[in-house]
Design a protein that fits this description.
Layout (H helix, E strand, L loop, with lengths): L5 H10 L2 H6 L2 E6 L2 E7 L13 H16 L6 E10 L8 E11 L3 E9 L5 E11 L6
Antiparallel strand pairs: 1-2, 2-4, 3-6, 4-5, 5-6
Length: 138
Protein backbone atom coordinates (compact mmCIF):
# COMPACT_ATOMS: atom_id res chain seq x y z
CA UNK A 1 0.00 0.00 0.00
CA UNK A 2 1.45 3.37 -1.06
CA UNK A 3 0.21 5.18 2.06
CA UNK A 4 2.75 3.21 4.13
CA UNK A 5 5.58 3.35 1.60
CA UNK A 6 7.89 6.27 2.49
CA UNK A 7 9.61 6.25 -0.93
CA UNK A 8 6.29 6.39 -2.80
CA UNK A 9 5.05 9.21 -0.56
CA UNK A 10 8.15 11.33 -1.14
CA UNK A 11 8.27 10.57 -4.88
CA UNK A 12 4.70 11.91 -5.01
CA UNK A 13 5.75 15.08 -3.14
CA UNK A 14 8.94 15.48 -5.19
CA UNK A 15 7.03 15.23 -8.49
CA UNK A 16 5.24 18.50 -7.55
CA UNK A 17 8.30 20.20 -5.99
CA UNK A 18 9.49 22.51 -8.76
CA UNK A 19 12.07 24.22 -6.54
CA UNK A 20 13.81 20.99 -5.48
CA UNK A 21 13.79 19.93 -9.12
CA UNK A 22 15.35 23.28 -10.14
CA UNK A 23 18.09 22.69 -7.57
CA UNK A 24 18.82 19.41 -9.36
CA UNK A 25 18.10 17.26 -6.33
CA UNK A 26 18.21 13.49 -6.66
CA UNK A 27 16.53 11.24 -4.11
CA UNK A 28 19.05 8.68 -2.85
CA UNK A 29 17.29 7.02 0.09
CA UNK A 30 13.95 7.52 1.84
CA UNK A 31 12.77 5.72 4.98
CA UNK A 32 10.42 6.65 7.79
CA UNK A 33 11.94 9.72 9.45
CA UNK A 34 14.96 9.71 7.14
CA UNK A 35 16.06 11.06 3.78
CA UNK A 36 19.28 11.26 1.83
CA UNK A 37 19.48 13.47 -1.25
CA UNK A 38 22.17 15.02 -3.42
CA UNK A 39 22.74 17.84 -5.88
CA UNK A 40 25.56 19.42 -7.87
CA UNK A 41 26.29 23.12 -7.35
CA UNK A 42 25.96 25.13 -10.58
CA UNK A 43 27.55 28.46 -11.55
CA UNK A 44 24.28 30.39 -11.21
CA UNK A 45 24.18 29.33 -7.53
CA UNK A 46 27.32 31.31 -6.67
CA UNK A 47 27.27 34.66 -4.89
CA UNK A 48 29.44 37.74 -5.55
CA UNK A 49 32.22 36.32 -3.35
CA UNK A 50 32.56 33.24 -5.60
CA UNK A 51 31.17 30.81 -3.02
CA UNK A 52 27.75 29.19 -3.06
CA UNK A 53 24.93 31.43 -1.89
CA UNK A 54 23.93 30.34 1.62
CA UNK A 55 20.34 29.94 0.50
CA UNK A 56 21.35 27.09 -1.79
CA UNK A 57 22.93 24.94 0.94
CA UNK A 58 20.04 25.86 3.25
CA UNK A 59 17.50 24.88 0.60
CA UNK A 60 19.12 21.50 0.01
CA UNK A 61 19.03 20.78 3.75
CA UNK A 62 15.47 22.11 3.99
CA UNK A 63 14.35 19.73 1.24
CA UNK A 64 15.97 16.78 3.03
CA UNK A 65 14.21 17.90 6.21
CA UNK A 66 10.85 18.16 4.43
CA UNK A 67 11.20 14.72 2.86
CA UNK A 68 12.11 13.10 6.19
CA UNK A 69 9.27 14.91 8.01
CA UNK A 70 6.63 13.87 5.49
CA UNK A 71 7.80 10.27 4.99
CA UNK A 72 5.01 8.88 7.23
CA UNK A 73 2.21 10.31 5.05
CA UNK A 74 1.40 13.00 7.63
CA UNK A 75 1.52 16.49 6.11
CA UNK A 76 4.24 18.25 8.09
CA UNK A 77 5.35 21.88 7.85
CA UNK A 78 8.41 23.67 9.22
CA UNK A 79 7.95 25.50 12.52
CA UNK A 80 11.58 26.46 13.05
CA UNK A 81 14.89 25.90 11.29
CA UNK A 82 18.48 26.92 11.78
CA UNK A 83 21.68 26.33 9.86
CA UNK A 84 25.39 26.62 10.51
CA UNK A 85 27.69 26.96 7.51
CA UNK A 86 30.96 25.19 8.35
CA UNK A 87 32.99 25.22 5.10
CA UNK A 88 32.69 27.08 1.81
CA UNK A 89 30.99 25.41 -1.14
CA UNK A 90 32.01 26.02 -4.75
CA UNK A 91 30.63 25.46 -8.25
CA UNK A 92 30.96 21.82 -9.25
CA UNK A 93 30.78 20.54 -5.66
CA UNK A 94 28.43 17.61 -5.13
CA UNK A 95 26.47 18.02 -1.91
CA UNK A 96 24.71 15.27 0.00
CA UNK A 97 22.13 16.11 2.66
CA UNK A 98 21.19 13.39 5.13
CA UNK A 99 18.22 14.08 7.42
CA UNK A 100 17.77 12.02 10.57
CA UNK A 101 14.86 12.12 12.94
CA UNK A 102 15.74 13.05 16.51
CA UNK A 103 12.18 13.10 17.83
CA UNK A 104 8.92 11.85 16.34
CA UNK A 105 6.05 13.28 18.35
CA UNK A 106 2.33 13.29 17.67
CA UNK A 107 2.26 16.99 16.73
CA UNK A 108 5.93 17.84 16.15
CA UNK A 109 9.15 16.28 14.93
CA UNK A 110 12.78 17.32 15.28
CA UNK A 111 15.40 16.56 12.63
CA UNK A 112 19.13 17.02 12.18
CA UNK A 113 20.49 17.36 8.64
CA UNK A 114 24.18 17.01 7.81
CA UNK A 115 25.34 18.41 4.48
CA UNK A 116 28.62 17.02 3.16
CA UNK A 117 30.57 17.56 -0.05
CA UNK A 118 32.11 15.03 -2.43
CA UNK A 119 35.16 14.80 -0.11
CA UNK A 120 32.87 13.84 2.82
CA UNK A 121 33.63 17.17 4.53
CA UNK A 122 30.79 18.49 6.68
CA UNK A 123 29.89 21.83 5.08
CA UNK A 124 26.62 22.65 6.88
CA UNK A 125 24.56 21.51 9.84
CA UNK A 126 20.80 22.14 9.85
CA UNK A 127 18.24 21.55 12.58
CA UNK A 128 14.53 21.70 11.97
CA UNK A 129 11.30 21.32 13.91
CA UNK A 130 8.11 20.48 12.04
CA UNK A 131 4.43 20.61 12.88
CA UNK A 132 2.33 17.58 11.95
CA UNK A 133 -1.12 18.49 10.61
CA UNK A 134 -2.59 14.99 10.71
CA UNK A 135 -3.61 15.26 7.05
CA UNK A 136 -2.43 12.52 4.66
CA UNK A 137 -0.34 13.32 1.59
CA UNK A 138 -1.62 10.33 -0.40
Amino acid sequence: MQENNPAAIIEHVFAKDAFSQWLGIELLDIKEGYSKIKMTVRNEMMNGLNVVHGGIAFSLADSAFAFACNSRNNLSLALETSVSFLKPVFAGDVLIAEAKEIRNGKNTGVYLVEVTNQHENLVALFKGTCYRTGKPLL
